[in-house]
Amino acid sequence: MKKSYVTLALTATMLTLCTAPLLAQDAPKEKKFFVGSGFNYSSHTTQRFMLDGNGVPTGVTESRTSSWGISPQFGWFLRPNFAIGVEASYYNSSLFEEDKPYLNWSAGPFARYIIPLWKTPLEIFNDAVISYGGGKNYVSGPSHYYLSKTRRAEIAYRPGLQCRLRHNINLLASLGPLLSYSYSEHRQQVLSASNMPETKSTMHNVGISNTFDFDNLTIGVNFLF
């Protein structure tokens, strides 16, 4: 499985902008609100062996997955280094060989504590996030076609890095939640057989998030006013 070169290019771009001497000279001014959005994208190619009925490899099959997401947010500074706000997210993931993508959404409040990094335009932001959301996708089985639906509630800690490009513009980067507790409910319905009952499963997860990686690198821009 290949990592997307897009995430590496975005990271390099952010570091280049934040170390530009002219940008560091633009002194920050105290603001009351911010509005902006984050965006992420990843693409993977996976190769697997094709097996016959006896488990003997007969060839190689390749599948490609493309994913993107957007996450607008609005915040209010209660202090120069502390803000509260609300955010929403939309995520779309699809196999190039299939018509119907996996769709996911969430929304909720957050609190942000900002730690300056010495006398530089760089700052570490620490978000406490509460979110609720859901998703759905269509799955093809050997003999049936399924509709899967998910509902999820989460409390998470999400760190990130932001760079003050100008007195009213911040560039942000985050790998997603680092620590979290989540409760999810998964339902699956067989669309090709109306007499089949719907199945339901629930799950609790707590600890280090398994989504904290470069696949979930989100680059964003906030405008302060």
Notes on the protein architecture:
By secondary structure, the protein is mostly beta strands. The chain has helices at 5-18, 21-24, and strands spanning 33-51, 57-79, 82-95, 102-116, 122-140, 145-166, 169-174, 179-190, 199-208, 218-224. The protein has one domain: Beta Barrel (Porin). Strands 1-2-3-4-5-6-7-10 form an eight-stranded antiparallel β-barrel.
Give the key terms.
single chain; 225 residues; mainly beta; Porin; eight-stranded antiparallel beta barrel; elongated; disordered N terminus
Mean pLDDT: 83
CATH C-level category: Mainly Beta
Decide which structural class fits the backbone: mainly beta
Number of strands: 10
What general outline do the C-alpha atoms trace? elongated
Helix/strand order: HHEEEEEEEEEE
Low-confidence sequence ranges? 1-6, 21-28
Using the coordinates shown, work out and report the CATH topology. Porin
CATH architecture: Beta Barrel
Radius of gyration, taken over Cα atoms and rounded to an integer in Å = 21 Å
Sketch the major β-sheet: 8 strands, antiparallel, barrel
Beta-strand percentage? over 45%
Count of separate structural domains:
1
Query: Strand order within the widest sheet?
Result: 1-2-3-4-5-6-7-10
Number of helices: 2
* End-to-end Cα distance: 42 Å
Helix content: under 10%
